Amino acid sequence: MLNLDALSQLKSLKQEIHESVPRHEGKVRATGGRYGFVNTDDNQQFFLSPDEMDKVLSGDVIAFRVEETKEGKSQAIIEKLISTAQDEFVGQYIVKGKGHFISPDHPTFNRWVFVPPAQRNNAKDGDLVACKISQHPYPHGKVQAQVLEVVGQTSDRQIESSMMIRKWDIAGEFSEHCENEAQALLSVMDAATTTEARSDLTSTTWLTIDSAMSRDLDDALYCEKTTAGWLLKVAIADPSCAIKPGSELDKEALRRGTSTYFADNMIPMLPSSLSEGAFSLLPQQVRPAMACYLTVSDDGEITDYRIENALIESKAKLSYVQVAAFLEGAEGDLVDQISDTVKPVLGVLNDCALALNGYRRKKNLVLNDRPEFRATLNEAGKVEQIISLERNQAHKLVEECMVAVNRSVANFLAEKEHGLFIQHAGIRSERQGEARALIKEQLKVENPEKVTTLEGFVEIQQLIAAGNPDADGAPFELPLQAILARQLERSKYGTEAKPHVGMGLPAYTTFTSPIRKYNDLLVHRLVKSYLANAPITPISEDVLAQVGKGQNNSRMAAWQSDQWLKAEWLQRQYAVEKKEQPGLQRSGQIVQVNSGGFTVRLDDCGIEGQVDVRRNKEWKFDTKTMTHKKGETTYRLEQEVKVSIASVVPVLREVKFTLCE
Predict the structure, then answer these.
(1) Residue 593 near residue 637, CB atoms below 8 Å
(2) Is the pLDDT of residue 219 over 80?
């Protein structure tokens, strides 16, 4: 029997051993496989084996110790669950024998979750459901979920948007309080528009250009030729005259962040009585607006600008197709519907837009057009066909006018104490070394580090666009612009005037969609306060974060719903092809590349799918040039390839291709 001294020594030894083992806290990061990692606040990363990952969920904060494996590698051993981020999720209900499970629709939650009998909510095999974690897997690795709602079945009309609305927490109907507030605003609109001094611009030949079915019209255009260039006038709808900060409508608009557009429906940021009615710049209706006057030189430089409150009346609601037909000199009913008073304005607007675009191409950066596709739906709400869309001259005309206004408003705010800007820092810090090496190697420039500055990035892009000087200006062998584009940071909102490197501008904001985007509404309030010399309320980081989250959720919900619809169409095509044309090859282009493979966009429909090369040791990947190599064959961005369909899972928007070599 051990005496007290021996027990004390043993306890002390155990304590020393415990203290000698490294211990940390960190956040769990799942992967596409069963293993994962845990990242600490001081940027250390430790491996989590499949057995350890079974005990936790992605996003969990854990306490762990570090041990060595038999192979001498470090791994994390979980000692305590501190907090969990995973709560509600969506997925598909699966019945296997007597077991009931949910297959989650989540990028890092890649295991089936057991549903106990009392928590099944009458869900059936194949149902699409919303659920929540009812039992966390720590410490025994047995996660359970409760079904909160059966959203529907895969065959239901609008199931794609319904599920994405649930997944991304997109607000649907407005509350009764918001609707009542909107109705109250309608009765006082005249008073709201007269509380601020406004110029009467109702006699100007304003026109709107948008999709034929659009009713939430934010902007109206007018232009006249001058001796030195053009006077471009852009009127932007003014909801800020009536929607006050802190009101119920304002709080709801902030929560939504933006209007959300699905293939089969639209969820507005503001009630439709306002967004498609009282604030919309509908034809033959007097509306409050903020008018921007831009002085544009013959070569497309904006030499002066002025902003004021105004009343306007649009004289014509035109569609992109209609305006493009007119500008192309086409004849027919569409063009004949444009009045003779409006046609001259369109011609002048187009000349001004072409000059603005030319100047931006010389001094700044203009993104290349990417292929766009539109799905037409049948009576069941599923895709009937996918057609290619070309951005016509009408789209480009409107875009140039909007960019011109946004640039001018950004310059206006940059001179003030407070603002709201879209900041784009350029190449990500972790990719700058490879970007410099690539530029030095391909362009032979002596100071490639300048690519990390606004002026340097613009210069590098213009050198690339000019072509390879060693090959008489022919394009470079490597797709340099595409490679650099994949190395850029994401843009973000900020209150300081910082460069938008991707556009080659010293400052940029958006001002032209205040009935569809909350950040534009915030910019309106700032501009109006400065024009009136009124007190300014700075925009908080919390508000910017909330706007960013709402807009990201909206964008993801719309995109994933669209991908689901198109994948379901491709699955139907594939089912027919397997019988009639097995192994059918499709043409596509490589649009994304990473170490595990690449993404191919099909030429005929724009659907994207993955080519996975992770299990093939013959493949080598060069991170600098973003190039895969197999033997003597290379695969890189913008390369044309042939693929066949390997598998399609519509509900997960998952398309996999096999490379036809």
Answers:
(1) yes
(2) yes
